[in-house]
Amino acid sequence: MTLNRLSPTAARRARRPVLQAAVDAGARCADRYRDLFDRNSRSSPVTWAVQQAAARQICAECPVRPACEELELRDGTGDRSSDGLVRGGRTGQELAIIREIRQPARLAAAAAADWQHLLALTAAARNDQACDRAADTTWSTAA
User: Fold this and answer.
1) CA dist 33 to 41, 64, 102, Å?
2) pLDDT at residue 139 in the model
3) Is residue 134 helix, strand or coil?
């Protein structure tokens, strides 16, 4: 698994830091096009439809689209009652339907695993800090 290209299966199995690193490193929309992915409140339905199609095309060619989609699903992005964004090649409505109807158990488990991973990292960092303080105390009393 490389960070610049994740399969949908690898994205579903990856923890949040890996997904975020992949998106940060390889997203086609990161440098330009950011305004294309969010509907302007003054956009007409026709303008938004054209904008959505262009955004989806960029996503379709993006090497990290599965990672982006997975992050957005885990973050709860999108709403079934409004259609104002495109993320990971899907509209906000599509993301909400996947999250709420098609894959709620899998996404809940993935989000829980992300939190467990974060807690474990935090605990390890605190343990390292405590060990460093203990080592500093030992060295200062020995000197």
Assistant:
1) 17, 16, 30
2) 65
3) helix
Average pLDDT over residues 26-33: 82
| Tokens read off for 72 | 């957005």
- What was the pLDDT predicted at 3? 53
CA–CA gap between residue 76 and residue 72 (Å, rounded): 6
Per-residue pLDDT tens over the stretch 60-104 = 999 999 999 999 999 888 888 888 999 999 999 999 999 999 998
Torsion sign across C-alpha atoms 106, 109, 115, 118: negative
Q: Left (φ > 0), alpha (ψ -120 to 50) or beta: where does 86 sit?
A: beta
Mean per-residue pLDDT, 108-132: 85
Q: Are 14 and 71 in contact (CB under 8 A)?
A: no
Look at residues 13, 112, 118 and name the one whose alpha carbon lies nearest to residue 70: 13
Helix axes 65-75, 16-26, angle to 10 degrees: 130
Alpha helices in the chain (DSSP H): 8-13, 16-26, 45-60, 65-75, 92-97, 104-142
